[in-house]
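=== RUN LOG ===
request id: a7f3
mode: sequence -> structure
chains: 1
length: 86
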Amino acid sequence: MPAAIADLAERLNVDATTIEVLDAREVTWRDGSVGCPSRGLAYTQAEVPGYLVVLRAGDTSYRYHAADARAPFLCETPQTPLEGSA
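=== RESULT ===
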């Protein structure tokens, strides 16, 4: 989670202490896109354990997705994780 906060603070050019954590939990993503597919790319079609972090800066919320082998990244076109995710 600290990596996601640091990334957002840098993107927005704000102090990290002004960023609020709204949600941070383990989830299962539907495939290798980790819930953030890009058009034209192919992904492994296996469930991927990972994390969802929702941050707020000002009046705007930002979703960060991650997996065990992938650092948190800002997802601007998010998909929801599988139902029943932790």
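=== NOTES ===
The chain has a mean pLDDT of 94.
The CA atoms of residues 33 and 73 lie 12 Å apart.
=== END ===
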